[in-house]
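Dock zinc ion; give full complex structure.
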Amino acid sequence: MTVRWARPEDSPWRSSTCEFRASTPTELRLLIEAARADRGVIAFPYKSVREMVGDEPTHCPAGHLYSHGRRHGRLIDQWAACDCGGHHVLVCEEPDCPQPQAYDPPVDYDCAPAAPR
Ligand SMILES: [Zn+2]
Ligand SMILES: [Zn+2]
């Protein structure tokens, strides 16, 4: 995950961004808790291991091929800020798609994601 500080001076590393690697869910949770506890941190998007190895989904939940699977397209991957750390929002451009936005990780019962952008 990437932690971003509003000002480099606020960071223990004197840098406004810092990359962290978590090899277990427990480690990731500790990183997230530390980032949340630090008032200088403005954002800490992180990717799951599944995404880091490049295994992007190719189809939306309704089975449409995402546009990056077509000739010139690329995956539309928006970001919804959320108390849990945030969600990737994969957008299906098929006009009649019943589920055009797929949240990754899925929205949990205590999630309240902001509007994706
Ligand atoms: Zn679709
Ligand atoms: Zn959430």
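Observed: The first strand starts at residue 2 and ends at 5.
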